[in-house]
Structure formats: C-alpha cells, structure tokens
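Notes from hallway chat w/ T.B., transcribed later so I don't forget. T.B. wanted the structure written out for a chain they're using in a teaching module, and asked if we could keep both sequence and structure tokens in one place. Agreed to drop them here.
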Amino acid sequence: MNVRALQKMMAASNASGSSSNESNIVHRKPSSSTPLPPHLLLLAGGVAGTVQWLPPFYCLDVLKSRMQSALPGVYDNVWDCAKKSYQQEGIGVFFRGLPVALIRAFPLNACIFLGYETTLAALHQEEEIPHLPPPE
C-alpha cells in the first residue's frame, strides 16, 4: 500500500470534519449578532453535519477505509483502490452504508454544534462580567 496516497486520502476525507465546518461558520458571524435559539442551532448543526457526508466525501471515506483495512500490496494508490473496488463490486460499493451515516450525522452534529455555541456563549458572558479587585 502506498503510504503517501493513504495520507493524502485521509487528509481529504478528514477535511470535511465537523469541527472545521462549524468553527468556520461561527467565526464568520458578526460579533454583534443576536444568539440563535437552541432549536435553530440544532437544525444548523444537523444540516451541516449531514451535508458533509454526501458524495463525494462519503465515497472518499469508503476508499480511505478500504485502503486502511487492506493487506499491504492490495492497492497501489487511491485510484487503483477505486478501480478495483468498482470492478469487483460495482458502483454500489461507494454508497454502501450511506443511509446509516446520514441518519447518524444529523443528531450527532446537531448536539455538537449546540454544545459548541452554548460553550462559546458562556465563555463570552464570563468575559463581560467585571472582575472585582482582590480584598486588601
């Protein structure tokens, strides 16, 4: 197995991770914006998390997993893995398990995003509380 190809594949697959997507959304918000209610935060996190698993990202993740679990020498590179997988199992190999991943992604990412936003709000509130000088 080509280690460099596997590293590139893992980087591409992990680039769609939830923490990077959610933090980009949060940091682009204007600082004076009113906080969203929890049900909208849950919806935003759930939708973002579900979208990140749609093809082609899910297909790349399938290839990454196949390369990781294969014995050394089975695949020369990512393209070889894709070709051999398609020849042996057809197009369905790239979508096997997708419904379960999508069903799992919504509640998982909704909760993560709500927790992230709630934590940020609590930390920012703490910064705004005036600190009293220590007693003399």
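Follow-up for T.B.: The two ends are 68 Å apart (CA to CA). Might be a good example for the class.
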